[in-house]
Amino acid sequence: MYDSYSNQDFDPSDQYYIKAFHGRYIAAHPDGLLVTDDDDIKHHDIQWRIIPCDNNRVALQIVKHQKYLSTEDHGTVRCFDDNVNNDSLWEMKQLENGKYAFRSCYGRWLNATGMTDDNPPETQPHLFANKEHHHQHAQFDVIPVKQ
């Protein structure tokens, strides 16, 4: 189900786009709000660093605000931590289809939803970690930013 993967495959100075199953990119706003409503790579807050950490885990840092993607034990995902801590470490798995899945320290997979008129970011989260098994909504493309 998983290809072999080492977190050492990523250079922390490189930048990446993380694209959800529906073709939109994960963005982090300055207030820590996470959305998956950007479909334009020219948007300024969708570039991430993948920072290798211990035990084949990674930290995901939004480039613009220098904050880390983290989760709470009940599945809330946020992006306002200034430093790497246990909540901001993710096990990153490369799947057979070439996509990636991210599992939190609580054993739950990062999932994306899409923004619609019925699901604006101020009323519904676009990212959460609440599934014990990954599925389509928990699969992401990790795309290098061309400098």
UniProtKB/TrEMBL annotation:
Source organism, top-level taxon: Eukaryota
CC terms in the record's Gene Ontology section: actin cytoskeleton; cytoplasm
Keyword set, alphabetical order: Actin-binding, Cytoplasm
GO biological process, one term: actin filament polymerization
Matching PANTHER family: HISACTOPHILIN-1-RELATED, IG-LIKE DOMAIN-CONTAINING PROTEIN-RELATED
Cytoplasm as UniProt keyword: yes
Compartments where found: Cytoplasm
The species this protein was found in: Didymodactylos carnosus
InterPro entries (alphabetical): Actin-crosslinking, Fascin-like_dom, Hisactophilin
CDD domains: beta-trefoil_FSCN-like
Every Fascin-like domain range: 12-92
GO MF, one example: protein-macromolecule adaptor activity
SUPFAM superfamilies with a match to the protein in the record: Actin-crosslinking proteins
UniProt keyword Cytoplasm, yes or no: yes
Protein name per its UniProtKB record: Fascin-like domain-containing protein
Pfam family, one: Fascin
